[in-house]
Amino acid sequence: MDINNSNFPLGADELEKRIGYTFEDKSLLMTALTHSSYSNEAKSKHIGDVECNERLEFLGDSVLSIIVSKYLFLHYDSFPEGELTKLRAGVVCEKSLGELASTIGLGDFLLLGKGEELNGGRTRVSILADAFEALLGAIFLDSGELGEEKAGEFLMPLILVELNKVTKHGAMKDYKTLLQQIVQQADGEKLEYVLTGESGPAHMKTFTVEAHLNSNVIGHGVGKSKREAEQAAAKEALTYFGEES
User: Fold this and answer.
1) If exposure means fewest CB atoms within 10 Å of the residue's CB, which of 129, 174, 202, 231 is most exposed?
2) For residue range 107-147, what is the model confidence (pLDDT) as tens digits?
3) Residue 142, φ and ψ in degrees, nearest 5
4) Average pLDDT rounded to a whole number, residues 215-222
5) Over the chain, what HEC string results?
6) Residues 6+ apart with CB under 8 A from 82
7) Whole-number average pLDDT of the chain
């Protein structure tokens, strides 16, 4: 089946322009865009064995996780493991992926069965999110040894928009980084975090931290880890500078 056939409302080359990637193996792109309803319909009509995007979705889910996890690990070094997990979940959830798919108009290129088409499948969040992961998996496979790099080049500009939304308006702000940026605006200022207390059994410790600006205490924080306590202290310290947290 031709990847540029009339089943696509827009030519596949248009999608390649939008995502900034040209496929060597066009069949991978077609599979990524083929919903199971289309595949099942083709089989029932004995048109042929048309593979749907479910396997590529499985692969793309793992590719998505490793690329986003690596970025968060490297760029949010003040976040403890639990906060990193929440942050990742916020940007790779079905709703977010559906929005990313809509950003590139992915629904316009999907191959859907007639029933799914009539039921608004092109705008259904679950279908869009699955297709987005399948597309990511297809780019990964098509790029060979450069799979992670090329998938990341497509993915990260889109993910960073979602990440900004989560960290700016959600509950996952990096308060330590925000505070550091403010302090660095003045020469000679020294910001440090001082552990002032530990309590509880080894497996359930509670840590208390103070944020010090030079010799002044500007914030207090309590958490289940030192990093969590430091984030809490930084959050309180931001009010010292008149910043809403």
Assistant:
1) 202
2) 999 999 999 999 999 999 999 999 999 999 999 999 999 99
3) -65, -25
4) 94
5) CCCCCCCCCCCHHHHHHHHCCCCCCHHHHHHHCECHHHHHHHHHCCCCCCCCCHHHHHHHHHHHHHHHHHHHHHHCCCCCHHHHHHHHHHHHCHHHHHHHHHHCCHHHHCECCHHHHHCCHHHCHHHHHHHHHHHHHHHHHHCHHHHHHHHHHHHHHHHHHHHHHHHHHCCCCCHHHHHHHHHCCCCCCCEEEEEEEEECCHHHCEEEEEEEECCEEEEEEEECCHHHHHHHHHHHHHHHHCCCC
6) 228
7) 88
Q: Identify the structural domains of the chain with CATH numbers, from first to last.
A: 12-169 (1.10.1520.10), 175-241 (3.30.160.20)
Does this model's pTM top 0.85? My answer is no
Residues 6+ apart with CB under 8 A from 244: 238
Alpha carbon separation from 182 to 148, 165, 228 (Å, rounded): 35, 21, 20
Catalogue the active-site residues.
Answer: 61, 133
